[in-house]
Amino acid sequence: MTRFGWFNATALTLGFAFLYIPIVILIIYSFNESRLVTVWAGWSTKWYGEVLRDEAYLSAAWISLKVGVLSSTLATILGTMAAISLVRGGRFRGRTLFSGMIYAPLVMPEVITGLSLLLLFISLDVERGIGTVVLAHTTFAMCYVSVVVSSRLVSFDQSLEEAALDLGASPFEAFRLVTLPIIAPAVIAGWLLAFTLSLDDLVIASFTSGPGATTLPMKIFSAVRLGVSPEINALSTLWIAAVTVGVITASLISKRNATRREQEAAHAN
Questions:
Q1: What ranges in the chain are assigned the alpha helix state H?
Q2: Could you give the CA distance from residue 148 to residue 20 in angstroms, rounded to a whole number?
Q3: Alpha-carbon Rg of the chain, whole angstroms?
Q4: Which H, E and C letters describe 162-202, residue by residue?
Q5: Pick the CATH number of 56-227 from 3.40.50.720, 3.40.50.1100, 1.20.120.680, 1.10.3720.10
Q6: Predicted TM-score of the model (pTM)
Q7: How do residues 133-157 score in pLDDT, each as one tens digit?
Q8: 8 Å CB contact between 156 and 84
């Protein structure tokens, strides 16, 4: 058994401190009474009220959520289909090119991806807006979904599908009733990852957005260029709280489903 020594404890402490101390400072200063973010003037929640009354921030947040839900859903569908093709498609013609095109956005700089998509939309005379941002986010997020789902399909026992086919189920019914429930955790994880990437993206959205399609990262970035304000600290704290609640909820649901599956397996035995 590996001994957890002082070196490991120190490295772990420094790593967590590097990651989370800036976030803690941001949360604390979101309650600062002063408009100067570097001068502490007492506790106050007035900046949260300012953020919730700011139509520009609320509109940008709504656009980000809408783009995130749409792009992650499309990316999950296309990424799952791509994963099934790669894992179960065998050696079909063009497989190497197909896999390379699927995984290219993983290593492609976001500036190159955003610029290439911008040139594509201009050449096709597509008006830039929410739709083009959704397509752009779907393009780079589906590869992440494909990787997550592929890792689950590699270890999937195909004899379960074969048993369903022997019992009279069609290939689509076997996939819907047998395969999809088993790989559902990977599909959900892929959707959450795609949704997180969409919410976090700034570079690609900046290239592909148009009038009326300003996402929240774009709005925050443009505001920070003029100086950090307490409203941005409050908005970031609300965003952190929303993400934390989402992660905890997803973890509880996943744990409950795993417990239910274990109970069902125990009853079956």
A1: 6-29, 46-52, 55-88, 95-107, 110-123, 130-154, 159-166, 171-174, 180-200, 203-208, 216-224, 230-268
A2: 27
A3: 23
A4: HHHHHCCCCHHHHHHHHHHHHHHHHHHHHHHHHHHHHHHCC
A5: 1.10.3720.10
A6: 0.81
A7: 999 999 889 989 998 888 888 887 7
A8: no
